[in-house]
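Researcher: I'm preparing a figure for a lab meeting and need a structural model of a single chain. I don't have an experimental structure, so a prediction will have to do for now. The sequence is pasted below. Please return the structure as tokens so I can convert it later.
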Amino acid sequence: MLPFKLDMTRQPLDEWGTPEDIGAATVEGAVKVSGKLLFGTLQTPVSGGLYAATQGKYRVTYPFHEHATLLDGELAITDEATGQTVVYGPGDSWIIAKGTTVLWDIRSPHIRKSYLAAFV
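Model: Understood. Here is the structure written out token by token.
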């Protein structure tokens, strides 16, 4: 079991670089991303862990299905196909389907989420 609670101790994450290093495109700001893979591998059909990013905006087309829960910060995600924007805070969750292009607008100095990614 991997518990993710809003009041848990925040463990250090590995530096992953910029949005471009994870297949996204920076739109605004000097966004830095980090994370820690805690379940599965990048080669398994399902993986998950923690992800964090600093303030700014980036666009990404999801290469997997994702369920995530925001642990820290404030984030607006816009589905570019529909124009729907939803603002998330700590404890809020979402599901994004593989192939969906979204704009991430990180409104706080940083965000952190737990996530589960399915490549199938």
